[in-house]
From TrEMBL:
Entry annotated with the keyword Zinc: no
EC numbers, comma separated: 3.6.3.-
Keywords assigned: ATP-binding, Coiled coil, Hydrolase, Nucleotide-binding
UniProt protein name: Putative multidrug export ATP-binding/permease protein
Biological processes annotated in GO: oligopeptide export from mitochondrion
Keyword match Cell cycle: no
GO molecular function, one term: ATP hydrolysis activity
Domain of life the protein comes from: Bacteria
Coiled-coil features, chain-numbered ranges: 153-180
Pfam families linked: ABC_tran
Occurrences of domain ABC transporter (ranges): 11-87
Amino acid sequence: MLQEPFLFFGTIAENIAYGKPAATRAEIVAAARAAHAHEFILRLPHGYDSLVGERGQALSGGERQRISIARALLIDPRILILDEATSSVDTTTEKEIQKALDNLVRGRTTIAIAHRLSTLRDANRLVVLDRGSVVEVGSHDQLMACEGHYYRLYQAQARNVDTEDELRRMELAAKREEERE
């Protein structure tokens, strides 16, 4: 799943069933329900038969993302790659998408690329990269306890500051503190 999901001209049902063209309507609806998309789909003029413009222009970012999640649920892959799955949506929509993602990742290997660290709290293992190099590995709790790179980035995001600049300042302060000890 990409940061900006790809939808094509066709119906909502066709977009969900893209990876499994022989899917039944019941399978499509079940996937949409699990993706928290069913309710908004029913509000569309023709429900599952509503046409989606090229690239899904008629839908909001969160709606497009939930259609993409429904598609992935229907395909039922063993390995799933999520690339910034919630980066282009507001916090309310992010919570809805996160519920859908919880259904999607259950029981499968998932590789999630994310800058919004709150979306990774429940991961079994986090690999933290900085400028292309692995700097930390562990669970959310382990990395928070270490008070390293992940901790500083998480704290900066929690304070809702410009994370890149703030993280660099925090890293410099931490290095100075280490040098003094």
